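Entry 14. Structure prediction run on the chain below.
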Amino acid sequence: MVDNLSKKQRSYCMSRIRSKWTSQEKKIHNYLKGHKIKHKMHPKIIANPDILLLNSNTAVFLHGCFWHKCPKCYREPKTNKEYWLPKIEKNVKRDRRNMKELKTEGYNVVRLWEHELKKEFNKKIDKLLKKYN
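Output returned:
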């Protein structure tokens, strides 16, 4: 399929996609801050988790369903497969390696999927905090 945007327009659109301070991260940060739960966003530790809950030494990863190949709702891209499939597989391998490293260092590791946070935000966050805080 041919792209319906010019190269300049596509470049601009892609530049707007952020790896830090996504809407999910902002929402969780505001929730944790509002409930006075000590945490650090984007801590400078091995494996670069999105959030570190300081009281329980818990590293939290917020994974997008497409980018990290969610087992529940991932759909393979229809176009440009030779680019996307290896990229996504590399993300999945890196995720496994990062979680293993953090567990070895004594961290509790939690992965929250994009679809979970969209559909049942309060339930998932409350469960996380009850278990690790």
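The helical segments are 7-15, 23-34, 81-104, 114-132.
Filed with the rest of this week's runs.
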